[in-house]
Write a structure and sequence with these properties.
With 179 residues, this protein is mostly helical. It has one domain. Helix content is 80%, strand content 0%. The chain has helices spanning 3-16, 23-32, 34-61, 63-71, 78-91, 94-102, 106-112, 120-149, 155-176.
Length: 179
């Protein structure tokens, strides 16, 4: 399976019910090549937009059930769902744009958007920068850190270091997030 297909499928999966962000894959690709990493970002964005559309549609068709399934995902709970719902009703699509800064998963915004009165075109339009900016930031950061701090090291060391960084990130994230 090609790198870009993995990025697309990972973006789709994480936008729906998978809880590990595609940034994990994108940062690994960036260790190999910045160009490949940036291209993989476009594929991950495409997958995220497909997943976001699916979750939006599910939230529109059966909001309560969609919310209950999303609440079952690690690090998501009813309080988070209620907070996002209230913020989206008050602030609209800007809430989606700022979502990556709060650590709130994209799928939460996707299922809550219809109930907040946000139309699919507006939700998709703001989803592009909301997802892509973080994908690009992580990809560029991984590549830059590898060049500065891991140059001259073998690929095994680079990937082992990256794996340790992501394990530490998720350990911290899952212990401080709800669910």
């Amino acid at each position: 399976m090609g790198m870009n297909l993995v990025a697309l499928l990972w973006g789709l999966a994480e936008a729906t019910v998978f809880f590990i962000v595609p940034d994990v894959w994108l940062s690994g690709v960036a260790l190999l090549s910045l160009k490949r990493g940036l291209i993989a970002c476009l594929y991950a964005l495409t997958g995220a937009l497909l997943g976001g559309t699916a979750m939006y549609s599910w939230g529109l068709a059966d909001h309560d059930y969609a919310v209950s399934i999303v609440e079952a995902v690690p690090a998501i709970d009813q309080e988070m769902m209620d907070r996002v719902s209230a913020e989206m009703r008050l602030n609209g699509t800007i809430t989606v744009l700022l979502g990556p800064l709060s650590g709130t998963p994209y799928k939460v915004f996707a299922v809550q958007a219809p109930a907040a009165g946000i139309g699919l075109p507006g939700f998709m339009l703001v989803s592009i920068p909301a997802r892509m900016l973080r994908f690009l930031a992580v990809t560029l950061m991984a590549h830059g850190v590898a060049r500065v701090f891991l140059s001259g090291r073998g690929w095994r060391f680079r990937f082992a270091t990256l794996a340790l960084v992501w394990v530490a990130f998720y350990a911290a994230y899952l212990t401080r997030m709800p669910g």
